Amino acid sequence: MKKLILTGFIFLAFVPVGVAQKTLVTEFEYQNTQARVPEPVSSTYVKPTVVELIVDSVRFEETFVLSREKVEVSMRGELEEVRSWGVYIASEEASRKRGIKCDMLVAAMFNLGYDKTQNNYKLKVVGYPARFANWATATREDYEWIRMDKTFTTNDKVAAIIK
User: Fold this and answer.
1) Do the beta carbons of residue 124 and residue 62 sit within 8 Å?
2) Is residue 105 within 8 Å of 92, Cβ to Cβ?
3) pTM of the model
4) In tens digits, what is the pLDDT along the chain, a chain of 163 residues?
């Protein structure tokens, strides 16, 4: 008799849980609303600045070793990412080795290769270290130069250099 009463209590204890679960699942409702909202737009204007670029006359050349994971996972195998990293690390290395501040690499060239024996990539970076000097607000002459640069296409620029 005790077993029968105990079994009854256990059965009654689980019945409300099962009913509650079934009720929650069957009465689930989804609602999505979209309304028109005026979106404020704010613009910021900054006067253009110009800078002189002082280029080192001695060419920088360095080969960097990158792990396969760094190139294929961290950089997703994208060449633009590898080149960008190459310019950054080459600028840092040029600054360290030459004791000068290097802000960019002018005429940078890259050679990326995979070394199967060592299971890594080798990136050779060649270029001329350069630094920025004499920052100034653009003048009317600079505005004309900037305007002309914006209207030229790449083909026009190449044609002007060839002439």
Assistant:
1) yes
2) no
3) 0.60
4) 666 565 665 656 665 555 545 554 556 566 666 666 677 777 787 888 899 999 999 999 999 999 999 998 888 888 999 999 999 999 999 999 888 889 999 999 999 999 999 999 999 999 999 999 999 998 888 888 777 777 766 665 555 555 4
